[in-house]
Amino acid sequence: MNPRSEPLLWLQLVALGAIPLELLGLLLVLAGADPGPLPGLERLLAWAIGALGPAIVLWQRPADVCSLLLVQVPVRARSEAQRSLAALQSPLPAKVALVLAAAALLPLFWWMDQHAALASPLSPLAASPRFVGLLLACPLLALMLWQWQQLSQAIGLLSRSPAALATCVPLTPVQLESERLCLGLPLLLLSPLQITNPTPPQPTPTASEVTPEPEPEPPAPTSAPEPLAGGTVAIEPEQPTEEGESADLDEEIT
């Protein structure tokens, strides 16, 4: 089976467009209230709850390949190819990408909170308490961290060859439940994509490659009458017709 035939891997690429929208939502949420007396401490606490805590959980149990956070493929109903994809996950690159994302969220969150007042006229939480904005910012940070790990895993699996998937030993359902973070309701059942290799076009033969057909031989000439001496040609006497023979017979009878 080709890893590119798994539709869940392609659905996880939606994070490329969802993460910028979530950053915009985070900016609007933070713009709803002015910073408190200790804005630095508030930012550290929000980042620790929304990014550092989920990063520790995902470090111990990486995000499941067949989970979209809200829905997932039932563990007991997964195909052998889906369990092979879970076994094909590289834990070290996924953990490194997770640490980089969690570390990058702290200065980004700090900068957005400092400049959030510019978007205060557009904030849906205008004149709301500071606690409400920070409380809503924590799940947004956790969501971006989850999607970042899913995105990095999907890109890595889509780049693997079908031979690597065929030689990988699939995980058992018990291993999936204990080693992967399977979140969401078990309601997702998708058929694998049908990927066919296009047949290459047949090359058109050139004029030099075309073998010419043999020309038909001219018909053999018919035998002509032999010429006589003096350049004359002997002509065969005409055969008497049936009418001439009947006239001769009538004269003999009379």
Mean pLDDT figure: 80
Structural class: mainly alpha
The rounded Rg comes to 44 Å
Strand order of the largest sheet: 1-2
Report helical residue fraction: 40-55%
Could you name the ranges where pLDDT drops below 50 across 5 or more consecutive residues? Answer: none
> What is the CA–CA distance across the termini?
110 Å
Shape: elongated
Q: What is the number of independent domains? A: 1
Order of helices and strands: HHHEHHHHHEH
Largest sheet: 2 strands, parallel
- The proportion of strand residues reads under 5%
What kind of oligomer do you see? single chain
Q: Helical segment tally?
A: 9
**Total count of strands:** 2
Give the structure's gist in a few sentences:
By secondary structure, this protein is mostly helical.
Features of this protein?
254 residues, mainly alpha, 2% strand, two-stranded parallel ribbon, single chain, 2 strands, 50% helix, elongated
